[in-house]
Amino acid sequence: MEKQSLMAHNNLVRAGVMGGNDGILSVAGIIVGVAGAGQSLGAIMLSGFAGTLAGMVSMAMGEFVSVRSSHDAQQKARHSQEEALKADYDKEFNFVKEKYQGDGISEELAQQATEEMMKKDPLETTVRERHGFSLKSEVSAWGAALVSFVTFPTGAALPMAFMALATPNLRIMATFLAVLIALLLTGYMAAVVNGANRTKGAIRNLISGILTMVVTFLIGTLFK
């Protein structure tokens, strides 16, 4: 139960980090583009607010659909393995044993390990070895959707705040720099959660932010 709770918690953290990151990046791109077109602060804020509302719904629904699809795949694998164990237990046993041997474990130790694992939880063991995931790693689809729904506008608030509070001649630059710093942090956090290289994750996120804001700004200047 503790392991399951930790996995579910980590998945919700992932949804939160990605929601906040997308909020920062998406809305920054929108308002920098509108600012590049020379629009008033009111128009910039309106576009940012509209983008935030759209992003909240989009992120929440995307997380919900993604997690539900994962659940459906897990349930299909569960039912498949339940039937397989009933139909030919020895075949499933031998599959697990041979897989362990393929990983470099001796036949004797593979036999012992398979016996222990299959005795404890044959369904969990065969699902994990055949399909590569644990039945104990489920996350709430509604929870992931709610976390994304809340963290997206939280992230979006940062570029909008800098755009609104900075002096007119510094709005774009102040927003640009604040967003880059925030993206370094969220890229680092995302890498921590996903177990990826933290430096590469932060730099990759930074580059995506630079490209997004530069492109939207240049497009905006075409409509001055």
Automatic annotation (TrEMBL):
Compartments where found: Endomembrane system
Entry keyword set: Membrane, Transmembrane, Transmembrane helix
One Pfam family cited in the UniProt record for this chain: VIT1
Ranges that cross the membrane: 12-35, 41-61, 139-166, 172-193, 205-223
Membrane-protein topology: Multi-pass membrane protein
Top-level taxon in the UniProt lineage: Bacteria
InterPro entries per UniProt: Ccc1_fam
Main location, first listed in the record: membrane
Protein name: VIT family protein
Organism this protein belongs to: Fructobacillus broussonetiae
